[in-house]
Amino acid sequence: MGTAGQQGFTLIELMIAVALIGVLATVAIPQYQGHVARAQITRVVSETAALRPQAESCLLEGKTNVTFSDNEASASTCLIGATLSNLLGKTGQSEQPPTGYPQIVLADNETRITATFGNTAATALANATVVWVRNASGAWRCQSTVAKRYETSACPAPPAQ
User: Fold this and answer.
1) Of 18, 27, 81, 120, which sits 20 to 30 A from 44 (CA to CA)?
2) Which of 147, 111, 141, 105 is nearest to 128 (CA)?
3) Transmembrane ranges (predicted)?
């Protein structure tokens, strides 16, 4: 009579497969989280960069008070058409701006657009900021407080000291 062939996998083969999957996951998950953080930074940098022309327009009109709501708009207030971002939290302790919007401070000598990452952003970005600064001559520069490994070329982190 013939001998019966092996059916299925042995326990050791299954254990080796599970171990390999575990090793791959150990390497892949942190890499994925890093890519997510960099993508979120890139998104916030571009969302806040889009507000620079509006800030310039407000300065040209002599308006230094900012609002994000049509209800609060007035002749002396500049209405900024910012979109609510689910990645942003509150900036500082002030009531303005509401959660999800960047803080915009308009002044002739230095204008700032500050975005603070909130709870829905990647854990590595908790409370990090992206800040666009306009100097008196009208030149804009971006700086961030994110870790060096997550920085983007459009908005570098300050050099390590």
Assistant:
1) 27
2) 147
3) 12-32
Residue 113 contacts residue 52 (beta carbons within 8 Å)? yes
pLDDT at 4 over 80: no
Buried/exposed code over 118-148 (b: 16+ C-beta within 10 A; e: otherwise): beebbebbeebbbbbebeeeeeeebebebee
- Written as one letter, the residue type at 35 is H
pLDDT score recorded for residue 143: 92
Summarised one tens digit per residue, pLDDT across range 132-153 is: 999 988 899 999 999 988 888 8
Six token digits for residue 27: 């390497």
Instruction: Give the three-class secondary structure for 23.
Output: helix
pLDDT in tens, 18-70: 999 999 999 999 999 999 999 999 999 999 999 999 999 988 988 888 887 77
Domain ranges (residues) in the chain: 11-150
* CATH domain 11-150 topology: Glycoprotein, Type 4 Pilin (3.30.700)
Q: Is 49 left (phi over 0), alpha (psi -120 to 50) or beta?
A: alpha
In contact, 31 and 113? CB cutoff 8 Å: no
Coil vs helix vs strand at 63? coil
